[in-house]
Specification:
alpha/beta; three-stranded antiparallel sheet; globular
Length: 371
């Protein structure tokens, strides 16, 4: 075993420090123009986002949670309406439905740890109006099957694609299959800002127009008030930063897929761990690896071992699936999801770690099981 080295789960200061000069130049440019709210930088970024996802419309919003809520409000969600979600997701997927007036119905996961298609079909009731699949950890669900269920039952689909900008299923981008999709630009995301930020994409003009009004005090694109709204605009400085970082986004995805490849090649020798799918070039799924989430026997002892070796790991969302937050009124059992949360955790997956760091992490894990 090599000498102990520090491999933090995520090195937040480097988001700024690695691009310090570029960020100062962006601030100087935006500040000297007084271009703080809804200026050309935002318009240009929205165009880039729409072009990248091959959608007709994109709107920068305050965060991805707002994006989901605004999309459901634009669709017309009302009290008593049920929306099926995966329980393996951030609470925001559910809270957006709650704040939009509906009721989230969490269901179990499948073998790929994403929403189980059969569970979706079995959860439909007379009150079901929609599905909100989470494109989790940079992987897109089986959207062909989900959309078939939606079309067959007349359901709306809003994708929680917060972690999946650039992820594809059968060469179609996450966030673009249903009525709308919402992306996150939280600093630790694959495309991250220096604060909160989100984006909504859609191919439906009526949803675009309603989301636009809702995110800007009810005003339409001409500034005329058409409805009640709120303030959830993507800050223009953040848009300028995101626009610049978007220009090298493909290289970022390539690097993350290479990190995943090394993890997969090194750790696949262990029967004690279950790894996420390996990066495949020509399959149905193109994964961008927002996170590298695996399952492991004796997980807590392994995490303690890694911590002692200087390796940072996390268990997402305080180690609970959505349906396990009984204080919020959930009262259901989802055995596959619960088993997953007894074993899951995440390894470092970001642009700051070197190949040497990755091999050190792998050596540490192998040493734990082979000692």
């Amino acid at each position: 075993m090599s000498a102990i080295r520090k491999v933090p789960f995520f090195d937040y200061p480097r988001i700024y420090l690695d691009d310090k000069q570029e960020l100062i130049e962006i601030l100087e440019d935006v500040g000297s123009r007084g271009a703080y709210i809804m200026q050309k930088d935002l318009v240009e970024f929205e165009k880039k986002l729409a072009n990248y996802t091959k959608t007709d419309y994109a709107i920068g919003v305050g965060n991805a949670t707002d994006g989901l809520e605004l999309a459901w409000l634009a669709i017309g969600l009302k009290k008593g309406d049920e929306v099926i979600i995966s329980s393996h997701t951030m609470l925001a997927t559910a809270s957006a439905i709650i704040t939009a007036g509906g009721t989230p119905v969490p269901v179990d996961i499948g073998e790929d740890n994403l929403i189980d298609v059969d569970a979706v079909a079995n959860a439909i009731t007379k009150n079901t109006v929609g599905i909100s699949p989470t494109q989790l950890n940079g992987r897109t669900c089986d959207m062909e099957s989900i959309m078939a269920i939606a079309v067959r039952n007349g359901l709306s689909v809003v994708e929680d694609a917060a972690q999946a900008l650039g992820s594809k299923f059968k060469n179609q981008s996450a966030g673009t299959f249903g009525d709308a999709g919402s992306f996150s630009f939280f600093p630790a995301k694959v495309l991250g800002a220096l604060g909160d930020g989100g984006g909504v994409v859609t191919n439906k003009k009526e949803i675009y127009e309603m989301v636009f009004q809702l995110h800007d005090h009810g005003r339409d694109t001409k500034g005329e008030v058409q409805s009640w709204g709120r303030n959830s605009r993507l800050d223009n400085l953040q848009a300028a930063i995101l626009g610049k970082r978007f220009d090298r986004y493909e290289n970022v995805i390539k690097r993350r897929r290479n990190i995943a490849k090394i993890y997969n090649e090194r750790l696949s020798v262990l029967e004690e761990v279950k790894l996420p799918p390996a990066p495949i070039e020509n399959g149905d799924h193109f994964d961008i690896y927002q996170n590298y989430e695996l399952q492991a026997e004796n997980r807590d002892a392994l995490r303690n071992h890694l911590s002692n070796a200087g390796v940072g790991t996390i268990i997402q969302w305080s180690g609970k699936a959505v349906h396990q937050w009984e204080v919020l009124g959930f009262n259901t059992k989802l055995p596959k999801t619960e088993y997953f949360f007894e074993r899951c955790f995440m390894l470092p997956m970001n642009m700051f770690i070197s190949d040497e760091d990755i091999h050190y992490v792998c050596d540490s894990i192998i040493n734990f099981y082979r000692k």
